[in-house]
Amino acid sequence: MSGGVDSAVAAARAVAAGHDVTGVHLALARNPQTYRTGARGCCTLEDSRDARRAADVIGIPFYVWDMAERFHSDVVDDFVAEYAAGRTPNPCLRCNEKIKFAAVLDRAVALGFDAVVTGHHARLGPDGLLRRSVDHAKDQSYVLAVLTRAQLDRSIFPLGDATKAEVREEAARRGLAVADKPDSHDICFIADGDTRGFLAGRLGEAPGDVVDASTGAVVGSHTGAYQYTVGQRRGLHLDRPAPDGRPRYVLSITPRTNTVTVGPAEALEVSQVRAARPVWTGGERPTAPIECEVQLRAHGDVVPATVTLDGDTLHAELRRPVRGVAAGQAIVAYRSDPAGDVVLGSATITG
Amino acid sequence: MAYLDHAATTPMLDEALEAYVATAREVGNASSLHAAGRRARRRVEESRERVAAALGARPSEVVFTGGGTESDNLAVKGVFWARRGVVPARARVVSSAVEHHAVLDAVDWLAAHEGAEVGWLPVDAAGRLDPERLRAELAAHADRVALVTAMWANNEVGTVQPVAELAAVAAGHGVPFHTDAIQAVGQVPVDFAASGVSALTVTGHKLGGPAGVGALLLARDVAATPLLHGGGQERDVRSGTLDTAGVVAFAVAVEAAVKGQQEYAARVSALRDDLVRRVREAVPEVIFNGDPTDRLPGNAHFSFPGCEGDALLLLLDAQGIACSTGSACSAGVAQPSHVLLAMGADHDRARSSLRFTLGHTSTPADVDALIAALPAAVERARRAASLRSPR
Asked: Which InterPro entries did the record assign (chain B) (predicted)?
């Protein structure tokens, strides 16, 4: 229970469904005081009190579990290392994979609990298939697609059939004070929302060149390649305009040479995506290429594709090119379905 | 439900509750001059006399406060300021490593904000202070010491300190000695004058009185600078309208607890000994913490090797058994107990601790319920803790 409205209503719904529920808030900051004044994020003391108050109203026991060390090594350090390696990580996805449905779930099962209930907006029914939420704008199936069959079998997502507005209404009806608490959007461990500053503090300054993809000419400089993400346009500070006068975008980041390569928007277009460490939960793992839809970043567009699995890699042939595909993000394959699009599987984009 | 957390708070005694309700129905501010005020004042002063008589103090030595934390803060900061105000060189506080946070944090605050230096007295493996260490400390620094503060009995592991001996050492050097006796009153014999201490903290809700009311017994020759300024209601050391009903109920509870102490201690320690014996049978690897003989009658404190105390607490809570890890929380996360660490326990042992405390409503059925639930809880907590080992 993060202290937000979703997990509070999820807990209340789990109780209403007849489960014996215990509320758990995760202490994720090594030093909670550092986040005391940062009203954003999921790890402030105020959020912990909001979660406890919600648990009291629902009438369930409530505990804080200290996951700070695990969170730091598996999510925060990984986040920094991924940027340093020129990739763009998704820490929420990583937290689901390593903390909420791993460290927390394992501890819970050891203590005698059967499952972890979260307030994620996604559907997981008796058929065991993970589907998009009815609220497409709030759908979080993308960051849950990394979960394995074993993890899904011990997960409950009670909110998948409700829109965010309905969740808020229900919270108000149930007397939960968090009913109109604002959504959190930022990365919870970067309290001020300044990702660049956060990375700069950990990786230090590393000046390098910004190079034009077509000419190979040095067109500018940067103070750290980790500050850039594929597809980014703003903040490039180029010395020279492009010959055609059109804007340039980050096409790739090369940590080995500490180079940021830029080019025109068209050069961002990608039709083939390679990815590693595939997880497949939407039925039997396919042995032949399959037709499906893929999503390449959180809240990103969905495009038709042919997906092939081969050992530890996944390959997707996109039916129409997509811009801004960044290594480190997940590719999630969906099968469209009138009862809610089904997550087939996912993998981490490598190129 | 088996309530095994009487050291956190214990149910109010019937007679205290009745006295509270009866008094709370009456109007009157004990500081007012009219008839209603006089009636309230009479109740307050009668209560003061009852508390004084029960605890071996003079009525004028009883300063009513808002509870234990306030009394501790008033004693530590108030006596420090008053003594240093007279002799600026007196800026040293002597305290023990196992104090409750109400004392510990007040001392730390003086060090951080008032330039106090602190002499920490160590404890042995049973959590017991050695009067010789205090003797050495004062032999070296007596002229610079503002006060000595050491608890009568420890709230976590239940060890009872040799308070009279410690107080005699301090008195020999003319240094005021404060003791936090919150866990001791009603549990072991406590006599203010006979103990030789200069200041003593007592609170209501640990002995069958209401929460939010307590007292500092403060010897007449010991000055304390007030923390709260205002009407000066309590000897000009403490301001604030007195909670007449609370004070009356507190006095009733103190009197009853002290009067019944011997009978209580005999009954509850027998129950406690049974609990300890059966916990040891059920979980042979358990470590019994604290002094085996000089301890509070209701206290049983264990370390469960291979378990985390907070996991055990969760599991026992789910079985309707209320107990405590006994240690403080930081943002809800249990910290390893400073008391156990001071006793020489390592980090793992400190985190594996659980405190069971019996009280005036405890029955053999409470112990039965604990013993029935404990083995399965320990097994599960061990499984959970084993996940924490290096991945």
From this structure: Aminotrans_V_dom, Cysteine_dSase, PyrdxlP-dep_Trfase, PyrdxlP-dep_Trfase_major, PyrdxlP-dep_Trfase_small
Per-chain mean pLDDT for chain A: 91
Residue A95 is a catalytic residue: yes
- Domain range list for chain A: 5-119+158-180, 206-267, 269-349
Facing residues of A260 across strands?
A210, A253
Half-sphere exposure of A55 (CA within 13 A, CB side): 20
As given in the structure block, the two tokens for residue B171 are 């008195």
- Check whether A39 has a pLDDT greater than 70: no
Instruction: Judge whether A199 is annotated as a binding position.
Output: no
Among B147-151, B276-280, B330-334, name the one with the lowest average pLDDT: B330-334
pLDDT at A43: 55
Mutate to test the interface with A, among B308, B316, B330 (most CBs of A within 10 A): B330
How does pLDDT run across B319-365, given as a tens digit for each residue?
999 999 977 666 667 788 999 999 999 999 999 999 999 999 999 99
Query: How is residue A224 annotated by DSSP?
Result: -
Set out the domains of chain B in order of their start, with CATH numbers.
2-8+261-384 (3.90.1150.10), 14-259 (3.40.640.10)
Q: How is residue A206 written in tokens?
A: 């590393």
CB contact under 8 A, B380 and A110: yes
What's the CA gap between A319 and B305, in Å, rounded? 59
Structural element, H or E, at residue B218: strand B214-218
* DSSP-based three-state secondary structure for A139: coil
* Closest alpha carbon within chain B to A66: B333
Asked if residue A303 lies in contact with residue A320, where contact means CB atoms within 8 angstroms, the answer is yes
Q: A269-349 domain in CATH 1.10.630.10?
A: no
CATH class of residue range A206-267: mainly beta
Catalytic residue among B118, B329, B372, B376: B329
* Homologous superfamily (CATH) for A5-119+158-180: HUPs (3.40.50.620)
Cβ-Cβ contacts under 8 Å, A112 against chain B: 315, 380
Among all residues of chain B, which has the CA nearest to that of A27? B333
Q: Taking each helix axis from N to C terminus, what angle separates B14-24 and B244-259, rounded to the nearest 10 degrees?
A: 160
Per-residue model confidence (pLDDT) at position A35: 46
pLDDT at site A40: 46
Strand partners, B240: none
Distance in angstroms (rounded) separating the CA atoms of residues A5 and B97: 43
**Per-residue pLDDT, B330:** 64
Quick: pLDDT tens for B220-252.
999 999 999 999 999 999 999 999 999 999 999
Structure-block tokens of residue A298 = 């959180």
